[in-house]
Amino acid sequence: MVAGPAPRPLPNALLLGLIPVASWFVIRPLIDPVPQVPAIYSSIGFSLFAFLITISLEILLKVYSDPIPESQGLVVACVYILSLILFIPFAFTRSFNQLANAKPSPEGITVLEFPHHQLAVYLSSIISLLIASFLGFLDDVFDIRWRHKLPIPIIASIPLLMVYFAEHGNTNIVVPIPFRGLFGTLVNLGPLYYLYMIMLSTFSTNSINILAGINGSEASQALIIALSVIVNDLLYLPWAVWFRIPVHLLGSKADIEFGGLWGAGMSKGSQVLVERHLFSLYFMLPLVAIGIPHASFPGDTLCYLAGMAFAVVGIQAHFSKTLLLFFMPQIFNFVLSVPQLFGLVPCPRHRVPRFDPETNLLHPSKAQFLKPPSKLSTLILRIFSILGLEERLNQLLMCTQVAGSVVAFVVRYGLAGLVYDGDRR
Amino acid sequence: MVAGPAPRPLPNALLLGLIPVASWFVIRPLIDPVPQVPAIYSSIGFSLFAFLITISLEILLKVYSDPIPESQGLVVACVYILSLILFIPFAFTRSFNQLANAKPSPEGITVLEFPHHQLAVYLSSIISLLIASFLGFLDDVFDIRWRHKLPIPIIASIPLLMVYFAEHGNTNIVVPIPFRGLFGTLVNLGPLYYLYMIMLSTFSTNSINILAGINGSEASQALIIALSVIVNDLLYLPWAVWFRIPVHLLGSKADIEFGGLWGAGMSKGSQVLVERHLFSLYFMLPLVAIGIPHASFPGDTLCYLAGMAFAVVGIQAHFSKTLLLFFMPQIFNFVLSVPQLFGLVPCPRHRVPRFDPETNLLHPSKAQFLKPPSKLSTLILRIFSILGLEERLNQLLMCTQVAGSVVAFVVRYGLAGLVYDGDRR
């Protein structure tokens, strides 16, 4: 093998500075005084390690300039899953918290040990993530047509569904207030709930991938969604501080209460809600950690991984409706792509803009009609054209995603009070 | 792509005949009267389906004669793991057994519902198997040197160890009678037990692979070991029949008691032992099912999968010593291979016999010494030569494996009574 150029020295200050910080976070639960939620420290610690490893890989690969960004996605997925696996004893072991049990916290909600039956749920989520990354890798290697990719998230969500069933997972949904006269407060969807979960996995996985096809920025989208989920989770945790955001100005009945040891913010004293959002954090923190060094495109593997991770937390932590609010730009793009997805308009392999070396300009991807489009296609394209969608699509995607999340929070904590009561989901 | 010959029609009688049989087995637990151990029927059913799918793939691929036996190993591994995942609700769901609970069995040990905390153990085993197959696939694709393969089973066993720790798994070992004066009846190995588990995974995975390098028959070895484990498991289950094998003639204190509804054979009334061996059966039955159509070599993926499956049942069902007895030919080969493994003798990429087209004979793999071997190497080779090992190695491997299992049973149920008391492991 020909020796490449010597690897550029890693940014040592960053590396050397972060290693002890990450180590301290990992072992923090073992140090007295035990914090309110010990395992979250370890989760942050493992996320920092995942970040360090990912960024080191990124630098190493850039130096060697090997054309393997796609295999790299696999390595990064492995780092993510390994950090989730190594985290298991910190979240689920009683003996780690004996220290804490000796001196129970004098006030507030304390999550010293994660409920043990959650371990099966956690493990089934890991299996789903493994299958999703694995199939994503096969997709990268063998370049599967998107029509054949559709079943991938369905297969990946099977472990999730099986364990949800074996654990007698809740299949009830809360009915919005205007419809309660018809359906009552709760409706048991039964098998339809499982269908809903499959559709959620399929959507969250593919929608990022479809939008990524346009601008090659799947990691940025996933990152913003993950950060939005984290912000949402933090509202439900017990914090030593407490404050109130006056969202009644936006039309909500109650303000957002953030933090507070006893009430744990939006959890309003419910230990279950705190645990659900911790579960979500355990998956989202390392996802952000591996996502940050990958603003450039890392292949399909990370798309599937991130999409499946969102589905996992949406399903298992029971905030799928809130999650879908964070997916507004993807939903919009999905609707926009329907003509191509369902074959009304020819769909190129990738819809990235084409670079013209003479003019130095990027030209948007164009679909060639080999035969005249049908009336339906023509109609749909006219509507899009009138709305001015196609040309502006690629602009401001990231801003849209951020703005979408802001709107999502307003809808979730402002307007939702009009159709749902109190602190549900 | 050039179109291959039309696929040969599948042996329809086999396929059509087995589908309803397999379906009946899968849904048998839902039919009244509920059997003594309902889930084992579903396990057999899923194994039959796995067998059917694997054999169909085998036939299809042979017809097209594509040179992809190695990717095929991956597909087969996926079939195996998917059958394990789909089996989850049958083994772990309470509602599936409400029917049975209504009419409890009038006599004997009944395993209507698998203990729920076992679900986490089951899932962690699946994660380990997934990682092992995945890394095995990467090995197939990228052809990793064996020295770099050694960590693969270690990584794959991490989920197993993490959950074992989180579940406060037993780290005691039973001391053989002659040493009890020194150590007592039980010794708590603590962290050393985890080291032992890692070594067991490494050994069971690599030993099959190393021996397979010689004759390309990893599937046959794995099959015989899996069948031996199944026979061993069956001794511990509750059967309607009961009989006794007079092993006291071989030196055991007690005879082997096979079956019996109350005593459940070797379990002697212990529900825990029944459950452990059921756990083992759930992994071994589909392994045999996917192994049978693969007497020819299926690449490294299946090696890793099978090796990890053995490690999983040995560890989780607590019969690792018995398992190692079934590995006697592999242990022997490992000792034999030590000079090449540790670099004393040059080791070719594959040690398969070379075919000479002129004489139509197979010649054993030969190592070329580019420089004279060291004194230690010479000494070891002389010893092997005196014992006549190298030349006879490739003969009668399968017979050796079967004979090894027979000896293992004699040792386990005959001689073990001399150093262990009663019905332990």
Write the layout of secondary structure elements.
Two copies of one chain form a homodimer.
Chain A (H helix, E strand, L loop, with lengths): L11 H16 L10 H27 L4 H18 L1 H5 L5 H5 L15 H25 L3 H4 L1 H16 L5 E3 L5 H4 L2 E3 L2 H25 L2 H17 L7 E4 L10 E4 L11 H21 L7 H18 L3 H7 L1 H14 L12 E3 L4 E3 L11 H13 L1 H4 L4 H23 L6
Antiparallel strand pairs in A: 1-2, 3-4, 5-6
Helix pairs in contact in A: 1-2, 2-3, 2-12, 3-6, 3-12, 3-13, 6-8, 6-13, 8-10, 8-13, 10-13, 10-15, 11-12, 11-13, 11-18, 12-13, 13-14
Overall description:
2 copies of one chain form a homodimer. The first copy, chain A, is mainly α and 425 residues long. Chain A is 62% helix and 5% strand. The first copy, chain A, has one domain. The first copy, chain A, has helices at 12-27, 38-64, 69-86, 88-92, 98-102, 118-142, 146-149, 151-166, 180-183, 191-215, 218-234, 271-291, 299-316, 320-326, 328-341, 375-387, 389-392, 397-419, and strands spanning 172-174, 186-188, 242-245, 256-259, 354-356, 361-363. In chain A, strands 1-2 form a two-stranded antiparallel ribbon. In chain A, strands 3-4 form a two-stranded antiparallel sheet. Chain A has a two-stranded antiparallel ribbon with strand order 5-6. In chain A, helix 8 runs parallel beside helix 13 and helix 10 packs antiparallel against helix 13 (299-316). Residues 1-7 and 97-104 of chain A have low confidence and may be disordered.
